[in-house]
Each structure stands twice: as C-alpha cells, then as structure tokens.
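User: I want to check something. If I give you two sequences, will you return the structure for each one separately, not as a complex?

Assistant: Yes, each is folded on its own. Here is the first sequence with its structure:
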Amino acid sequence: YGYQFHPLFTVAQEQLFRVMEAAVMWKCETMGAPEGVRCFRNGVEWLMKMGIIDRAEADRWNAIVALRNLTSHPHEQMILPPGRVQSTLTDVVKDINALFE
C-alpha cells in the first residue's frame, strides 16, 4: 500500500532536504565554521568559500536551500510521484557523500 500512497513519498522528499541541511551543518561544525554559520544557506555559502562545495554548483545548492525552505514552511500541499522522489534520493546521496569525501 505504501508504494501507492503518494503523500508518503512527498513527506519522504521533504525530509531529504532536512537531512541535507543536517549534513551541511555537521560538516560546518566539524570544520570549525565561525559562529555566524548557523543556518543552511550560510552553511552552504561557507562550504563554497572553503572549497568543499564547487561554486559551479551554486545554483543547484541555492535551489536545494529554497526547496528545503518551501517544504518546511509550505503554503500549499504538494503530492509527488515515486519516480521523482527516487531521483531526488539518488541526488541527495551523491551530494552528501561528496561533502564527506
């Protein structure tokens, strides 16, 4: 039943963006980021400055931050199909692994 219940996939994707935020903030903390780096956007910017996240990926990472904000503070309900969420999961795994290479 779970595979056919698309709202569950939507919730899963929303959580993936929060997992990415946690990974970014953990990386910042372990690298000794300054006190001002306390939010996802600042963490991504600081990791770019430190060369951990490639500046060529800035648009994509800014979109991820925006999606995290959109899903954490929604104005309307979203329903996503399993294939789209699976694609996001694959991308998230690659991005988080790249942070900790």
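And separately, the second sequence with its own structure:
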Amino acid sequence: MELTKSEMEIMEVLWDVGVPLSRAELIEQSTEKSWKDSSVHILLNGLLQKQAIQEAGFVKCSKTYGRTFTPTMTREQY
C-alpha cells in the first residue's frame, strides 16, 4: 500500500494519539500539516478506500454526529 505525504501525516496523528478521532479532532491534533482543513474528508475517504483506517464509531459534534476513525494497522506493520 502506497500512502501520499498528506495521508501519512494523518496516519502519524492517529498512531501518536492512539484513540479514535473525529474529523474535527484530527484537524486540531495536526499541527504540522501540508493539507488544508477543507480537504481532510477527501484524505479520509482515500484512507478508507485503501483500508488503512476504519470507522470506529460516532461522536456528537454540536447538533450532528461525526464519524471517528482508527488505523487498521500499526506503524510497524505499515
């Protein structure tokens, strides 16, 4: 599996935090990123298609619910 630089940045955050994160939490945790906040959904969908991440559940975000994501492999397995 080949991941882009931006996808790797998201994976690094997920690996470092170690708990499922929502899109908003992922943006908060990504201090050094090469991608724009508005494109995070595209990157997450790409990682889902590559089966690098999976949906872990839902969290309440103000009046709506958001998906949370977790890696399907460890840093070492990648």
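Because they were folded independently, the notes below concern the second chain alone. Strands lie at 21-22, 53-61, 64-71. The mean pLDDT is 91.
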